[in-house]
């Protein structure tokens, strides 16, 4: 019996995403969600989340690549990667943005995030990870940080999975271990967002599941944002996670769904 946590990213990005996540929390499919606190929708969505958040992990989804407003500090992903690995990122600017996103979470939720991850996994990039861990220690952070060091792969997605894992996961793991910050052991959920059979992907992940597995997902009830490159995949994910088949698959592969905080 493997203990697994499904985590939905992008809470508050738009109402359709938030609605899907709220429903899936209520059905017991999700036990974690990470929040985009720069979103205009965040204060309203957070008030909907708070009453049902006692038995799940609610985290901060650090963002440096999605523009919500002109005041948001963002880069295109290629530029951010180039600046991070060439050590050209302004650490003070990164820290300021982390503080702003953190404070926006605490102000509405009334507590620290239960965990930290990053939109497009930017939290594991050079400079960002160093500034982040230093900030977390200053805040006496007691939660956990998402790690991609030990990915569980599905056929046809081995290269992408390993590539994302190698973009700083091992170094982030080492830094967190040195600072006694907890991390998930295993990670899944990586694919190209074009698969027409999301159920099969999950079956492949669940079949390989081990304790402390975190599975990332991105559900939404509708495809409203035409600029969102994964809008269709979001709806497919929602339909599967909201189905009887999902819970049947968990039983079939002897999966216990839990918040990650209880597994570490």
How does this model look, in words?
This protein has helices spanning 15-27, 42-49, 77-85, 91-109, 128-138, 158-165, 169-178, 198-207, 231-241, 244-252, and strands at 2-11, 32-35, 57-62, 115-118, 144-145, 182-183, 186-188, 213-217, 255-257. By secondary structure, the chain is of the alpha/beta class. The protein has one domain: Glycoside hydrolase/deacetylase (TIM Barrel). α8 (198-207) packs parallel to α10. It is globular, with a radius of gyration of 17 Å. It starts with a strand and ends in a 7-residue tail after the last strand. GO terms for molecular function: deacetylase activity; hydrolase activity; metal ion binding. This is ChbG/HpnK family deacetylase. Its cofactor is Mg(2+).
Can you describe this structure in just a few lines?
By secondary structure, this protein is of the alpha/beta class. The chain has helices spanning 15-27, 42-49, 77-85, 91-109, 128-138, 158-165, 169-178, 198-207, 231-241, 244-252, and strands at 2-11, 32-35, 57-62, 115-118, 144-145, 182-183, 186-188, 213-217, 255-257.
